[in-house]
Amino acid sequence: MENWAIYAAPARTLTDVTIACLGAGEYSGRNEGFRNRQLRSHAVVVVSEGSGWYSSPLTGDVRVEAPALLWLFPGVQHGYGPLRSGWTEHWVLFSGAATRALDELGAWRRAGPVVPLDRVPGSLHRTFARLHAALADSGSPGALRASATGYAWIAELAASTMPAAAPDLIEAFTRGASRQVPMETRARELGLSVGQLRSAAVAATGLTPLQLLIDSRLSRAQTLLVETDLEVGAIARQVGFDDPSYFSRQFTQRLGRSPSLFRDEQRRMPMPADAAAEQLLR
Question: Please, is 159 exposed, middle or buried when counting C-beta atoms within 10 Å of its C-beta (0-12, 13-18, 19+)?
């Protein structure tokens, strides 16, 4: 397999209504990886061969064994890379309004970004051949083909890894984090008392239900701050805070900077240049 990376700047219309492919690539080798990186968009990485690691402040260091996929989120500090024996990875950068629908549908778990796969997807090589061809065409038809191919790939990966049965307790609890309902209602919907919910949450994550809700809301807020032009108050309400001032205090306390400063910092991050393309996601 030849290593390659191509980036694109599709029309804003695509990100306003669906998912736009901002780039894709394939890499096989033994680079050292990176830590403490933040992206301005979503990304999905499939590791088809070899082993390595993933790290973030939320997860700590996690071993990655092929086949596996990694979900990466805008504004979330992370790092990953292969072990000394190397690995083969295939990645897609994407952004757009449809990411919020995927988030609500449970396409990924922000608390569990590393997902083991039963096998390498059979469509992998065909998909990346199409992405390479589409991204090499810098015109609008190429952008449309790249975005359609990328969206289909993301949907395939999400559908193959979403639980077929009822979601686990923590996933079910945090999926509705933006709703402003009493904790008693949340517990009752899960068939638990508030005390049982608290015990289960602390046992599974070390966090109380309220802390889980706040963390989930702030994680979604980071995405909206990076990917949309919504005002901070509108973002606060959309993720579940009825008081924008309380939202800003919580955001600043958890992330060390205000929502506005976080947005400014992320938007000052340069988009990947061709010369640095092969280093962005490795």
Answer: exposed
Q: Is the domain of 112 the same as that of 219?
A: no
CA distances from 166 to 78, 190, 258 (A): 29, 11, 37
DSSP element (H, E) containing 152: helix 140-161
User: What DSSP letter does each residue of 184-243 carry, written as one string?
Assistant: HHHHHHTT--HHHHHHHHHHHHSS-HHHHHHHHHHHHHHHHHHH----HHHHHHHHT-S-
Amino acid at 25: G
Question: What does the pLDDT look like over 187-214, one tens digit per residue?
Answer: 888 778 898 888 888 877 778 999 989 9
* Domain count within the chain: 2
> What's the pTM value of the predicted model, to 2 decimals?
0.68
Question: What letter represents residue 205's amino acid?
Answer: T
In a domain, 275, yes or no: no
